[in-house]
């Protein structure tokens, strides 16, 4: 009993003191497959999940579009770091298949020609979980690998009817084994044996929901997964239900936060009567708005931080014009009351001259139309751009938009070299933004809005050319087939007509050739 109490206490400490807990994660996303259907989302899924876990204090071993050798090295690196961890997490997005109850994760260079390929070209989930069982207190596995996989169908055909029955759709249920720790959580994108959706957006439905909820303050992982399951079930119109198997002896929190003291709120906002009770409302809204996209949330936070840092009536009103019912709306109103009641506007914002204090308020009527303006004071850097989670395809789109905005960055290739950085800086300078060569979420939103029409025309032209090329290809294929059919029929007619004798034809041809040759010789 005493040992059980100690174990529960250890889990609580792991949640309340993440800075002291050892947290390690392996995050893999494979989509650029060389020998089977490619998947557009896993690289994005892995990139954003890695960023989330790093923010939660995890040491992350991350890999995108990895070959078999690269995956093995990532697992080895993870295994060394995970030894003795308080929490170890495996997140994988990409192709996977189950054979005889074993779940196999598929590298991008796998061919899967026969059963032997499974041992030498895939990595089993069991193998990775063994690396997570070495003195690890809590294990968590998140598998977004239940997609419709043509590799499994190919393998089933080559194994024959007697053995192909061991190959199932989706992934097989993973039995939780006691390892002496405080428990495990295993989550699939959908129920065992079912096929999950890859999604139409930048992330799959399962990973989108997981990213939104995994860092919810003061929510246990059990609560997080309940919310994820419900959200995916509803967003996929009840076609996909995530599967979770947990054996924890207590609640585990990935983002445990102490409730802020009321005096802290009063000190920053200066309104005892209304500010202190509002803090729980902010947390509630943050945890119950799963439909809000990450980019919209980051944008609102950025506008609020800008207003708070400038501490002017104009910027607080700019926030309220954009988000009248936003998470920080009450705080903004309290700050406006405090500033308007005092006489410190001119000292807080030296650009406001005496006698002109009402000018900013009058000019905020059209703030919504110029929404990015308050964010120009926030310079971009590597961290702000990395938080956007762009993969190579997204970076190509950004380069295309920069070209459309009048900044020549060359042919879009998804690599941000000196020319692209110079183009970003030039675009920032042209828009009154601090020119750093790196984007923020707000700046990307501004670029997207500026080039919306041009990019739509560009995309339409690209689609037109692709359709024309596809049509030409189909036409050429049809022509070749017609010619082959005509040639085949001609050969059949020659071979089967009358009493035609190939040997006789050769003899006659030789005689005729000799006569003609002799005539030419004379």
UniProtKB/TrEMBL annotation:
Record's keyword annotation contains Iron: no
Highest taxon, organism lineage: Bacteria
Gene3D superfamilies for the chain: 3.40.50.1460, PGBD-like superfamily/PGBD (1.10.101.10)
Span of domain Caspase family p20: 21-150
Keyword Metal-binding: no
Signal peptide: 1-21
Region Disordered, annotated ranges: 469-498
PROSITE patterns with a match to the protein in the record: CASPASE_P20 (PS50208)
Keywords assigned by UniProt, alphabetized: Signal
InterPro entries tied to this protein: Caspase-like_dom_sf (IPR029030), Caspase-related_regulators (IPR052039), Pept_C14_caspase (IPR011600), Pept_C14_p20 (IPR001309), Peptidoglycan-bd-like (IPR002477), PGBD-like_sf (IPR036365), PGBDSf (IPR036366)
PANTHER family, alphabetized: MUCOSA ASSOCIATED LYMPHOID TISSUE LYMPHOMA TRANSLOCATION PROTEIN 1/PARACASPASE (PTHR22576), MUCOSA-ASSOCIATED LYMPHOID TISSUE LYMPHOMA TRANSLOCATION PROTEIN 1 (PTHR22576:SF37)
Listed name of the protein: Caspase
Taxon lineage: Bacteria, Pseudomonadati, Pseudomonadota, Alphaproteobacteria, Hyphomicrobiales
